[in-house]
Amino acid sequence: QEILEKYHDLFTVQWEGVIGNMRAPSQAEWEQLLTNCSAFLFYGMERFLSHVLLNWLVAMNIPKCRLVILLDLVRSQQSYQRIADSDFHKSCLRIALERPTETAMLLSLTGVGSIIATQWYTNLEENAEKLETLFENLLSFGKTTGQTVHVLQK
């Protein structure tokens, strides 16, 4: 929340979404957010595709979304239990499609222009640092996504 407030003036006034842990977005909300945005940020626990229905995502056409930033793969004891319970009912192939590379490929096939995503599990503090670096470089300094990813890699 602090990071969003810090960079609020650099955002367009049309910033919308779901913030907080009060409730999970419905599939209709995911669809509306993804199809009506030019950039999409997911900052959450576990795998992004564990929150979105795969069959629904692959049927989407979202070419207006030029950038997706996935700061997922954060794990806590509670999120691990939730994902383990959810994965119990999924096939190995379905779980494999939720990995970072496969998620990026699926998003690309739906029309997304660029994808910035974490590749391995992390903690909340590291993800907050990544978000700060992303916003600082993309919004404050006006760097390209490629330049910003290069900064993150250092």
Automatic annotation (TrEMBL):
PANTHER family: CILIA- AND FLAGELLA-ASSOCIATED PROTEIN 46 (PTHR15977). One of its GO terms (biological process) is cilium movement involved in cell motility. It comes from Peucedramus taeniatus. The gene is Cfap46. This is CFA46 protein. It comes from the Eukaryota.
